[in-house]
Each structure stands twice: as C-alpha cells, then as structure tokens.
Amino acid sequence: MLLIVGLGNIGSEYENTRHNIGFMTVDKIKEDNNFPDFKEKNKYFFTKKGDIILAKPTTYMNLSGEAVLALSSMYKIKPEDIIIIHDDLDLETGRIKIKQGGSNGGHNGLKSIDKAIGVNYHRIRIGIDHPRNFTPKIDVVNYVLGKFKPEEKEKIEKSINIISQNFDNLVSKNFDKILSKL
Asked: Which of these is catalytic: 19, 86, 107, 122?
C-alpha cells in the first residue's frame, strides 16, 4: 500500500491558498489518474485505487498527523510508504524538492505528522516563497493563507502538473525522474 497525502485546510475560504498546495496537488492526481470520488471519514477525505490511497486531512493543517495516523493504522502502512505533499516557504515559488525524513522546517502540519508517525516518510515540498523576499511587512500566517497572485499561480500549476503527469514515477518512488522534468 502507498498513501499519498496532500496537506491543506478544509473550507472554501482556504481554496487556492498557498497553504493548500497539497490539497490542490492531490486533487489533480485524482483527476488525471481516474481515481474514484473522495469519500469523507472522520478525519480525512480519501479515495483508493488498487493499492494507492490519496487523502486530504479534514483536521486542519496543525493536526494533520491525526489523519495520517488514522489512515496508516487502518491500512497498516509503514511511514516509508507514505508521501506527504506540502507547501514550503523556504523554496522559491513552484520549485519542487523531494526527500525522506529530516527536519520539519517549522511546518506545523509536518510537526504534527512527525509526532504521530515519526519522520521516516517521504515529503514533496512545493515552494511558495517567503514573504520576507517581497516585503518585511507581510505576516507569514496571512501570507500562507493568502491566494496566489497570477504569476505565482502559473508556476504552481506547472509544478502540480509535473507531479500529476509523473504519477507512475511517484508510485514507484522514482523521484529523480520527477525532478528531471523541472
């Protein structure tokens, strides 16, 4: 089994915000790869096709670990068979980095997941840039919960498309092939 989780916040006010890039990516993977519709459980939305589960926590970002733990426990999925897709302030907009384990970089969703299942899962980090790179007056919380500017949206959509179009490489954890498409 493989569990692919996109991080974000539920609710229409959070749609197309920087912090919901994980949700956006999982939605695109679902659409492009003919997964059934999402079903809602207590702590997450999920869809399953074969041995692959796509999920979006409904616990809000800071409690994402609850949803990941619930799903991984139910299906007996080891951390190394979990891929978390999330926003990253420390990468320029649209840049993708992939790694297994390591620091959560202060990301509250990852902190929650680390606490719930440890750190040995895979992470697909999609850059959203840091507001300090634009002006020091923008609050980080308001920035990550803000909508993409048109020029950012174009870069983000390109990154999301690359991940979705390389679904087979994602499933086989052939991450270098995904990164080579950038």
From this structure: 19
